[in-house]
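Bench notes, bay 3.
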Amino acid sequence: MNDAHSFEIREGCTKNDRHFKGAIQRNSFTEAIEFYSFDGIAQFDFSFHLISETGPLIYMFFNLAHQSTLVLNCNYKNLAIPAFASVMMLNSTSDILSLHFESQSRYDFLIVKIQQDQLNVEQQALFRMLKAKNSINNILNPAMLLMPNLEICEIARKLKSIDKATCNHKFIAQGYCNILIGLKLNGLFKGSNKMTFLQPFEIQQLKVLSDEIIENPQHEYSIKELCKRTGLSVSKLQLGFKEMHHCTVAIFIRNQRLEKALDLLKNTNMNVSEIVYSIGLTNKSYFCRIFKKRFKCTPKLHQQKLKETLLLDV
């Protein structure tokens, strides 16, 4: 996967400051699935060519930048992928496929590359059927590009951010790839991509807010304050969280506090009462109740099991 200027992408994280100032990742998860991530600024105008030398490929492109459009050229026809949108397409060895970058423009996007002949017979037949039914210039249902999909965007962001250096994280990253493929296929079969009602700058506000809550779940958050900070109405804020995270703002905050508690139980010597206050709660019994509901175990029992496991490892 190189461009006309010998744009080299190695396994793992690499840089090519001659063309693209920023971070580039490449990871192979299986013989069928590879992942590429681009996050940086183009140094000048250039095209990045995707070449199929080993057989038919399935490409998925995810534009995560809220200010720049990703321009995809397929057989000399341009397709603009807007902010927070994605496209799935089939590519053969005879197709000419490239991405065009404009000088000093910032890009943030992912590519999932699937080797079609490495899929099982049922999966290959599925993609052949989809191409015959929905494809225009090898792009599966291009009409679905008009609006972003927050659910797909959130999974793509998780795939991008996870550390892929270790074996266990590679399994998780491969799982995210499969989820993205499944979500996109669901949209194609249902004839809908769950198009969001939010504008790109509003989606960016939701993304920033979600990251802050994940980083600092212990803070006291109010809907009124969050609406004021994001510029979103209460209904847009709640519906945006439901589309992106499948839950309300309050439940998202609660879940992140529980994840933080789980981390503190594992990595500190704090007792349950100390953990309750450190994650922004004041009622220990309430904490124990929601912890048990989420993880099917009381926090104290979970902490005891962790200690027993550590003793066995010594």
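Next record in the batch:
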Amino acid sequence: MEIRVLKYFLAVAREGSITGAANSLHLTQPTLTRQIQDLEKELGQKLFIRGKYKVTLTSEGMILRKRAQEIIDMVEKTEEEFQSISDTVSGDIYIGGGETDSMKYIAEIIKEIQDEYPAIKFHIHSGNAEDVIEKLDRGLLDFGALIQPIDLSKYDNIRLPDNDVWGVIMRKDSPLAQKENITLDDLCGIPLIASRQMTPKYSRDSGFLDWFGEKYNELNITATYNLVYNATVLVKAGVGVAITLDKLADTSLESNLCFRPLSPKLESGLDIVWKKYQVFTPAAKVFLDKLNKSFQT
């Protein structure tokens, strides 16, 4: 498979039309059709279902679309890395992370680097730990900002200062809003919107679920989320209350939401991680040096 042909395939998948893709690629329709047919022969699979007005991906085509995009992303990232190797420090740094107030420390370092090295560009990917780890392991991210608890055995890491406090986001008209703290007994029996961070799949071996103990199975988890904004939309609609970190949702006087911390207190730290034995670009090395200078003791 050639990179050029994979780009052709992705264009057809994106446009849903051979004609539209050919126009966007500045190719003739017969040329593009032949390239796609040759790709299907090479793989031994039909990639598109050809309809009267559009083409749609087969199940095999959907698999290839995911892999092809990963391959193209990796090729482009590799090209950027080699272009950045010059006397002037430049290039792109890719950072993935979850939503947490501790990201302010990363923002401060980014601002400092931009002031010193204006040719360095940053690309931030927001996602939960599962999303970030997958991209990190595939080499699509240079660094990940992972909210604890998480298994760090495969990575080098730097722990950022401060911990984030877990609690409950609820509507101000909720009976729980009258309490200063929320206990485990308060949570039992009411509809909960839970971070995927607190599900057994992600936290079984971390000790995170120890806070809930045997009562975890009594919780009425009606929905889960990976980023907080959509969880707050569900809370506003009355779907339930959301277990989340503090300082991520608007709980100002003008908002109809409020936050109450869990009791006993439950906190999570934030680690900046990267793959062990990773070879850094000059730009990524600048970022790592700044991290070490700011946070390593």
